[in-house]
Amino acid sequence: MKKFLLILGIAGVLFAGGSAKADTNRVLEKIVLYPANLVLDALDTFTLNIGFGPVLEARLQATAAIWGGGRVGMSWKMYKAYNRQYGFGTEDGWYWEFVSVGEENLGVLESTSLVNKYTEIRTGFPEPFNPVYRNGNRDYWAIGGSLGGLVIGDLYIHPIDIADFVTGIFFYDLKGDDLIFDDFRW
User: Fold this and answer.
1) Which of 12, 18, 107, 152 has a CA 20 to 30 Å removed from the CA of 3?
2) CA 163 to CA 65: how far, in whole Å?
């Protein structure tokens, strides 16, 4: 019986030691990558896109469900967009919306590798479960607007990313988008 308890005790120490090592690595990872993750979380709190082209657009948005405006035309944009999309792309299409009723046929048709290509075609109420929002191409909860003719600018803030930034200050990753050591492995 003593031998059995001794073996059980050694196995428990080895098992707990492996778990303690993994926890130590996670803590080290959080501390080492804290500054980079904090900067990325701060940059995630807003969108700023600038473009030009044969386009006319005016949009004011409280969320994707409550907004108004319209657009027609095509533009070539420099993106600092939602969900860490940075680069250039061609946006083409049209939309109109008043409060929560409208139609849309808009998309990013060509882009650099860090900007997602997508097309949203819808009539009626924009639903948060639409793949364009669920896949991270656009933010359903964004607040802001777009304005322009020939030269166009988009400015939005992202409330969920603001909460992610605030919780990130206290080492909690609300969105699960923080860098980890495995992101740097080839």
Assistant:
1) 18
2) 20
Structure tokens at 177: 């988008």
Burial group, residue 78, by CB count within 10 angstroms (0-12, 13-18, 19+): middle
Res 183: pLDDT = 82
Which one has a higher pLDDT value, 72 or 29?
72
DSSP string, 43-80: HTTEEEEEEEEEEEEEEEEEETTEEEEEEEEEEEEEEE
Retrieve residue 127's tokens.
């639903």
CA distance 83 to 171: 20
Listed residue (104, 86, 87) closest to 95, CA to CA: 104
* Residue whose structure tokens are 């030269």: 151
Judge contact between 178 and 33, C-beta under 8 A.
yes
Across-strand partners of 68? Answer: 60, 98
The model's pTM: 0.82
* Dist. CA 101–CA 95, nearest whole Å: 11
Distance CA 33, CA 182 (A): 12
DSSP conformational letter for 81: E
* CA nearest to 178, candidates 30, 25, 21, 26: 30
pLDDT digits (tens, 9 = 90+) for 129-157: 888 998 889 999 999 999 999 999 999 99
